Amino acid sequence: MSKTDKKNILVIYTGGTIGMIHDEESGTLKPFNFGRLSTVVPELKKLPCRIDFHSFDPLIDSSDMQPALWTKMARQIEVNYHKYDAFIILHGTDTMAYTASALSYMLQNLNKPVILTGSQLPIGEIRTDARTNLITAVEIASSNVVIPEVCICFDNKLFRGNRTEKYTSLHFDAFQSINYPPLAEAGTEIIYNHEYIREVNNNSLKVVSHFCEDVFVIKLFPGISMAAIQSVVELPGIKGLILETYGSGNAPKDTRLLNILKEAIKKDIVVVNVSQCSGGVVQMEKYENGMVLKQAGVVSGKDMTTEAATTKLMFLLGSDSPATEVKVSVQYSIAGELSSE
């Protein structure tokens, strides 16, 4: 790539650890001025790109993430879509997988990379992962390899965003994608796994931003109160339920549980079965304890993560489609979030 081929990249800082530095006077963390980024990460000057910055005001702790903020990010990309070749979103790690999943559904016909990254330690720390994550994200965004997906770049790996989950808060490899291989891996050079990257869609970008927040997640455990589950499905306005089951989609053969689920489904509450296991796939036909859920009307989340399934159900229900349509749609891929059978 020649100097005249520099890519234009927009970095959107929403908040999170990556953008914090220590205030020497107070000893507390404060937001970093990204206008001075090149002084902290001078390596970025060597990459073939021009970087602009946009910061949320106010900045958001990722624990405070809401669908309205997903819409704000998507609209920021939409209004700048033709000005930039790639977008990098700096985001707190706690809800990054939810945001990446939601954006993957919202940004339809995407043909440019949207890369989320963050860090476990602030960018101003001596021993931090922030610089590595940011440099790797920018290098991938400025390359000639087109990755038309919403991704997460962390610890030298680029993952499909709606396939990831945060699994540790102690180590730099905070994210994993067990059911789908990395799109790229950075070592002495960046290796792109082209066969796993989605194809470019030449249609115009379309941003769809409807979400229904009347969705609940229930994680099964031995001894779970049936009264508690009953109270959830009786919540006013509840439209969707993510049921985190055991193994390949199994649940207790408890008549009370099955009756609760059957009544919920009769009320057009969409119940989606996802596994508590990070790896694997829901196969309700495999064991009798899974089959009873299928017979009750529970639909399979296949190999989706909880984050991908939850945001997908919120997204589909937000379209005001009938429950019968949502039950079908949730089992088919929108943005590569599940594997085809």
Topology:
Layout: E1 7-13, E2 20-22, E3 29-31, H1 37-40, E4 49-55, H2 67-79, E5 86-90, H3 96-106, E6 107-108, E7 114-117, H4 130-141, E8 150-154, E9 157-160, E10 165-166, E11 175-176, E12 184-186, E13 190-192, E14 206-207, E15 215-219, H5 226-233, E16 240-245, H6 255-266, E17 270-275, H7 288-296, E18 299-300, H8 306-317, H9 323-329
Strand percent estimate: 15-25%
By secondary-structure content and strand pairing, the structural class works out as alpha/beta
At the fourth CATH level, what is the homologous superfamily of the largest domain? L-asparaginase, N-terminal domain
CATH class term of the largest domain: Alpha Beta
The CATH architecture of the largest domain: 3-Layer(aba) Sandwich
Q: Roughly how many Å is the radius of gyration?
A: 21 Å
Read across the widest sheet, the strand sequence of neighbours is: 4-1-5-7-8-9-12-13
Uncertain stretches? none
Shape descriptor: elongated
Provide the residue-averaged pLDDT.
Answer: 92
- CATH fold-type name of the largest domain: Rossmann fold
Return the string of H and E elements.
EEEHEHEHEEHEEEEEEEEHEHEHEHH
What is the end-to-end distance?
A: 40 Å
For the record, the count of structural domains works out to: 2
What's the β-strand tally? 18
